[in-house]
Amino acid sequence: MSETGCRHYQSYVKEHSYDTFRVIDAYFAACVNKDAREKKAIHCNCFECGSYGIQMYACLHCIYFGCRGAHITSHLRAKKHNVALELSHGTLYCYACRDYIYDARSRDYALINRKLEAKDLQKSLGWQPWIPSAKETNLLLANARRRLVRPNQTIGLRGLLNLGSTCFMNCIVQALVHTPLLSDYFMSDRHDCGSKSSHKCLVCEVSRLFQEFYAGSRSPLSLHRLLHLIWNHAKHLAGYEQQDAHEFFIATLDLLHRHCVKAKSEHESKCNSGTGGSSSTAGGGNSTSSSSGSGGGGTATHCYGQCNCIIDQIFTGMLQSDVVCQACNGVSTTFDPFWDISLDLGETTSHGGVTPKTLIDCLERYTRAEHLGSAEKIKCSACKSYQESTKQFSLRTLPSVVSFHLKRFEHSALIDRKISSFIQFPVELDMTPFMSEKKNAYGDFRFSLYAVVNHLGTIDTGHYTAYVRHQKDTWVKCDDHIITMASLKQVLDSEGYLLFYHKNVLEYE
């Protein structure tokens, strides 16, 4: 396909330049501002039938809008005009060629308009195909023989040395490295660190680890640099005693989020000298359970939806909490971001003393309405008094990767114990029943299992291992520096402490 369109479009550009295309694309295809959206809503209807069709065309030779099919083609034929712009996707159509055409310069102007639209609406830019830069093109030409990954190859698998009760860290690193979207991000070298001391940046170290994993070597890796960075930034995890894998997971996400925000602010301050850097806020945590905060027991403090770092893009969802007053039936709704969902496994009097047997049981119990007794009265904003109420959790939005924490460690004033009961979990999980808006929910909420972290032993002494999905139907067991093949049955028969699922279908804004 030519990058300058067809000969008819070239003739059009010589006669009219790109100005008409830029204006029509800005106002009726991209809609770069409020004024453009108003003009499109008022004027963008078919001149023949008056309808506001889904696929409307604008003639680039004159002022004319027409529906797809007979109306636009009859106009182009009668007026002997060749070029029209399809307004839903901003694609050029040549009537003489009877085909859509591509022009590189026009697409550059259209991309500028799409960026202006995204900025005005405060939304992310839609998906764009990857076009290699000059540097990337030279690298591809210089490395014509690239590695071909075949089935049953071990590239991407590396054992991790135990540095002294660090199996909890090794398992979380294995799960993160095998997170599809995260590996795509780091393997495409997307992290741009503006820090002068990149050796102190946790994101730079994680990026280096991804490169090491996929370098092709089979020798075990040592995570001493990562461990040292985490010790420096999360003091409660410092030391050689055994730590909780879930706590380490949340702390790692929090630190990665903070470093991403810091790197972005430093990069922007370099680009815009003289402007103040944005403040770095705490990056989420497990707002679904008071026992699993980020860092030293903190909860999510960043504002959901305002951070666009890779961690929040992949792992952040939104929890909805509805409190219903028993006196007036008034509903108070709050929203909280979460990085994972902690699920109780023990008996609870509020749910009839029944212990869950499956992950679905745990989720049903988690999202079931709970009556708050007289000892937990909440002040109703409508009644202006303290009333008994019911509280119910549901999932407002789900992240691309949802992780479940099965709360196997129970701490009380009387006894600390581990719940070792078997919880059945599926390979494919549909989260639709647990969404806040089940009927009107937009998107596909089916997820696939890709990693499981297990704890073997008691609450005092134990060992962490992990199962990760290496390729589509290939599972491996990661036991520190030992990597062995595993069957799906072994994965599903394991005890399960942390379960990682990724979304099957990704939606672009």
TrEMBL record:
SUPFAM superfamilies: Cysteine proteinases, RING/U-box. GO terms for biological process: protein deubiquitination; proteolysis. It comes from the Eukaryota. The keyword Metal-binding applies. It is an enzyme of class 3 (hydrolase). Keywords: Hydrolase, Metal-binding, Nucleus, Protease, Thiol protease, Transcription, Transcription regulation, Ubl conjugation pathway, Zinc, Zinc-finger. Pfam families: UCH, zf-UBP. GO terms for molecular function: cysteine-type deubiquitinase activity; zinc ion binding. Residues 158-504 form the USP domain. It is found in: Nucleus. Residues 268-293 are annotated as: Disordered. Its main location: nucleus. Residues 4-120 form the UBP-type domain. Belongs to the peptidase C19 family. UBP8 subfamily. This is Ubiquitin carboxyl-terminal hydrolase. It comes from Drosophila rubida. The lineage of its organism: Eukaryota, Metazoa, Ecdysozoa, Arthropoda, Hexapoda.
